[in-house]
Specification:
This protein has 272 residues and is of the alpha+beta class. It contains nine helices and nine strands. It starts with 26 loop residues before the first strand and ends in a 5-residue tail after the last helix. Pathway: Protein modification; protein ubiquitination.
Length: 272
Amino acid sequence: MSVLNLSEDMVECPLCMEPLEMDDLNFFPCTCGYQICRFCWHRIRTDENGLCPACRKAYPENPADFKPLSHEDLQRIKQEKRQKDAQRKQKVTENRKHLANVRVVQKNLVFVVGLSTRLADAETLKKPEYFGKFGKIHKVVINHSTSYAGSQGPSASAYVTYQRAEDALRAIQAVNNIHVDGRTLKASLGTTKYCSHFMKNQQCPKPDCMYLHELGDESASFTKEEMQQGKHQEFEKKLQDQYLGNPASEKNRCGEYWSEYSSPVVLCFNET
């Protein structure tokens, strides 16, 4: 009796459900052929009734069928396992290739562009008179690249991560299209892509990596072509309706609130 021709997965002991050690692959302690690991066999013989769980016969002093693996067998099994692991990883990588073209909308992430130098500071944006007024912020990342500046001249952008999705949506409603420091701010939900290590089925070495390491919400996932068609904006509009009800009334309320007072703290983004 032998299980040297390994199946797709390693053989498990039916009692402890642990994968059989290589030395256990040819271990059949009972004449009925019921295979268990040597640990369970020893436990049954020393701590329990000493009977085979399958046929209920008493185990003999020595296993009925046990032929230790030769060095050549061990090396062959190890090589087969390495090959199967490599094939499995390759299959996962192939199945994830299309994710390179996918972006996932993050419901709690605000992407704002058009920030002046005065506002392009993470600690400043966290303050209660700025984005901090809408809810608890987890993280702020500033991007000083001017690629989003358009015709407004040099400006920065920022990713503001809230702990709650509804806080991010309220921030977008209040901030989008307001004029600050001679610039028009544009705010929307941010998107992220999949980590290259995740797509290769590898462990990411960066503890603070901002990209995705697991499959994102399918309803929030869009290809670059779909984003060019505005599908992600339609998704954001649905979220606004879902979390905040009528976006227009909320926008008007925020606008009235900001224009009603003259204090820089209350006005938030107005120049000081």
